Amino acid sequence: MTTSPSTPKPRSRLLIALGAAAIVACLILTGLVTRMDQWLYDQLGPLVSQEADNRIVVVAIDEKSLSELGRWPWSRRQHARLIDELGRIGVRGIGLDLLLSEPALFDPEGDALLARAMGRHGKVVLPVLAEATQVNGPLVELLPIPEFSASVASLGHVDLAADDDGVVRSAYLRAGQGSPRWPALALALSQLDQPLAQNDDLPGERLSDQAQASPQRWVRDHRVLVPYANPPGGFAQVSYTDVIHQRVPASLLQGRWVLVGTTAMGMGDTVKVPGQRGGRGLTGVEYEANVLNMLIQGSAITPMSLGGQLLLSILLVSLPMLLCGFAAFRQIWRPALATIALTLLLSLLLLQFARIWFPASATLLVLAIGASVWVYRLIRRTQRAAQTDPLTGLANRNKFNHALEQELRAIQRTHLPMSLLLLDIDHFKQLNDSQGHASGDAVLRLLARVLRGRARRPRDVIARLGGDEFAVLLPETSAQAAATIATTIHVDLANLAARTERALDAPPFTASIGIHTTQAGDNLDSAEVFERADAALYQAKQAGRNRSVSHAPAMP
User: Fold this and answer.
1) How many other CB atoms sit within 10 Å of the CB of residue 503?
2) How large a percentage of the chain has pLDDT more than 90?
3) E strands within 200-312?
4) Which of 30, 82, 236, 512 has the fewest Cβ atoms nearer than 10 Å?
5) pLDDT for position 34
């Protein structure tokens, strides 16, 4: 099987595949494409978004509640009243996303009432906060006061882990100081009526054993990507004050998971989520609603392990080298583009059906660079082919015309002469008719080889103008030097004719040469220069062929 000029040989393909594998591994291990992966996830994320579950209701401490119940913080008697009302309605569980880490010294009885209300309900979850004691210091646990911790059904952390661009894409299902002992608040709430799940039963990216070594470190485990609802803040929401004043229909809350938190402007931090275009972002309680939505629908997205990502990426960037052996993919840029499409499709299918996130940016980048390089090479090769005579490999007439125009302009800048040689093979038609086209082609190739040996400077241009007509463009060459080169060409042809064995098996032949040298002050255009060289060639033929004639007198 022959190999296309644009298809690497097997050894080259192996080296290219190894190089691509090394580059993609370097990009992944160094994290250079992390931002690209985040952008790609943000683009694909909406394709796997889900509806907000109607079993989740947010009880919002909003502007209306602040207006009716007074300035924050309220007496904890209000929270006790809320929990009792939710208990009367019969909610499935309550996540009270409020900071209760210090006793209310101004109203200790309110603390006692709240503790008893939580104990009576039996399905209340309180948050464990991760807070830095100093700027850029380590995170430490802030637990509810012991009275509350003893009264609730469970505690859950509300640690928000933003990526380096400030967007919160992930949730850690377990975290804690020294070890990941606390479930996420939403996880604790979703498991109130189930046996507590073991770590191995939870989805998500596991943390290494080394990360658990320090007892002072805030440790996270079971990282999952959150498929935010569409829209992220689209959960059923009722006002805190409406609930305690019984202005909310019981059917809206009965049997639901209830998350209680602040939504009023200026109260608490906001969460920036993927795809957000301005606005204030989500409140903390809305973020918890999205995590709970993910858990009860079983739609958590697990990041692919580092080993799996490396293996799949290396396989994909090596795939074009395997495909280019097939006829349909003989040019390597085609399998590279096909693999780019396959990579995007695979990433989307894993996200949609396996709930696994494959960060494909490194793979796509390497494939795109590879395809671009090969497309560029193909364009350059096509351009060269459009300017090259296929039989001899010399420049064709188009390239010659362009080069002649360029050198005429250069004469005006450098004030140095330029010489043009036009050549015709003597009696070429008779040779072609008597010896056959194969011998004629051999003669043309042999003359091209001779001319290459005599015009070797970078700017020299040798062209086959058509049939048996050739041109040699010699920038910065005097008439005397051009005549010398023409003479050496005649000598080379005579030497070839005298040989008994010729490398190209071509019959003996001679050539006639016309020479014209252009000076800076001549002010001739390309057509006039060509006509003068052609006139000199005609004189050489009229004088008996196998000779050179110069249109201009030789320079002393």
Assistant:
1) 10
2) 65
3) 218-225, 236-239, 257-262, 270-271, 282-283, 302-303
4) 30
5) 94
